[in-house]
Design a protein that fits this description.
The chain contains six helices and two strands, in the order H-H-H-H-E-E-H-H. The protein is mostly helical. The radius of gyration is 18 Å and the shape is globular. The two termini are about 25 Å apart.
């Protein structure tokens, strides 16, 4: 494969990934419960699945965003009553974040709202095609991540 062909292939790959990201975010924004943003759902989903408290720094690292960006999202979630933020008992300069019962309920409502969309996409594409692309997407994420 020539360098020009490789570059064209890379540009096509990144164009598709970026366009898909934008389309997914637009559709999710339209169907998430009123007032919930994609970033809010992502944090609630992460906390619910993790099952334990996280620091804002851990969350920022998980989502590959700045501490300022995660602080903004956490402030909105705390104001809505979806998370609890408390001091870290071992280091008062740090904080610990956990999902609240209201946050779990909001996450479940959001999941119910998006389930038809994501299930429909899998159904249209076909389970075999989705299973085939997941390892490629995971490899791409690993390559582009901080350790890659």
């Amino acid at each position: 494969m020539t360098d020009q062909t490789r570059t064209s292939l890379a540009v096509a790959l990144f164009s598709e990934v970026l366009t898909n990201d934008q389309l997914i975010r637009n559709q999710l924004t339209r169907i998430l419960p009123k007032g919930m943003e994609v970033s809010h759902f992502s944090v609630l989903n992460h906390l619910a699945r993790a099952g334990d408290e996280k620091s804002p720094a851990q969350l920022a690292k998980s989502f590959h965003v700045t501490r300022g960006a995660i602080t903004n999202t956490l402030s909105k979630l705390e104001w809505a009553g979806y998370i609890h933020v408390r001091p870290d008992w071992d280091d008062a300069r740090r904080k610990r974040v956990s999902i609240s019962p209201a946050g779990r309920e909001a996450r479940e409502e959001a999941l119910a709202a998006i389930a038809p969309l994501i299930s429909g996409v899998v159904e249209e594409l076909g389970e075999d095609r989705v299973r085939a692309i997941l390892p490629v997407l995971r490899s791409l994420r690993a390559r582009l991540g901080p350790e890659g």
